[in-house]
Amino acid sequence: MKHGKKYVDSAKLIDRAALYEVKDAFDIAVQTGKAKFDETVEVHVRLGVDSRHADQQVRGAIVLPHGTGKTVRVLVFCKPDKADAATQAGAEFVGAEDMVAKVQGGWMDFDVVIASPDMMGLVGRLGKLLGPRGLMPNPKAGTVTPDVAKAVTEAKAGKIEYRLDKTSIIHCPIGKVSFGAEKLQENFDALLGAIMKAKPAAIKGQYIRSCVVATTMGPGIKINPSKVISA
């Protein structure tokens, strides 16, 4: 694959064979953010688990100390008695059957979906639409909850969900290049701390197999997995 000049210049800053200390990795990551827009910084963590087994799933949610830098549009499914609270908390879209019908019609102009438990019978109809996009409300992520207002507040504050893909890798945004290395590292430490706490009891041996950080348009920077965080 042919890369642009900015990517090539960024790649020169990285030793592809090296495993970097966390601080050094984020110092370099900030330097590689050369695009005209404020690039997102993402972390990719490969775990020593088998995602095909139910007892080896790793999933949860965390509010990052410095947020993600992304403005999120929140859709809330709830009964009328909770609608005002959800709106006051900052939800852009609030409804019940009307919103279900709108999504079924192809509308997808939202980034986070929250639902009260008594709405899941209706929201379940949207599984094939929301599931593939990672938007389906889930109790483990705190997006199925009686306190929809609190969930909206957390979403607006930068709450992210982490979960395994089919290859046992967790992919998560942890901020923007403009945050600087220190804030990005603090967000990273918070995320990795949550992932460590979610370690399945059935796992023996090395839990974090590899960890890579990269900006939206930049090359990957490998972090030494043994230096990420202590178990």
Rg from alpha-carbon coordinates: 19 Å
Beta-strand share of residues: 15-25%
Q: Globular, elongated, flat, extended or rod-shaped: what is the shape?
A: globular
How many domains comprise the coordinates? Answer: 2
User: What do we call the CATH homologous superfamily of the largest domain?
Assistant: Ribosomal protein L1/L10, rRNA-binding domain
Count of strand segments = 9
Give the helix/strand class: alpha/beta
For the largest beta-sheet, the strand count, sense and barrel status come to: 4 strands, antiparallel
Distance between the termini: 38 Å
Which bin fits the share of residues in helices?
Answer: 25-40%
SSE pattern: HHEEEHEHEHHHEEHEE
Taking pLDDT < 50 over at least 5 consecutive residues as the criterion, the unreliable ranges are: none
Reported by name, the CATH topology of the largest domain is: Ribulose 1,5 Bisphosphate Carboxylase/Oxygenase
Residue-averaged pLDDT: 91
Name given to the CATH architecture of the largest domain = 2-Layer Sandwich
Question: What would CATH call the class of the largest domain?
Answer: Alpha Beta
The helix count comes to 8
Major β-sheet strand ordering: 7-1-8-9
Explain briefly what this protein structure is.
The chain has 231 residues and is an alpha/beta fold. The chain has helices spanning 5-11, 22-32, 80-88, 97-104, 120-123, 127-130, 148-157, 181-197, and strands spanning 40-47, 59-63, 74-77, 93-95, 112-115, 159-163, 169-176, 208-215, 221-223.
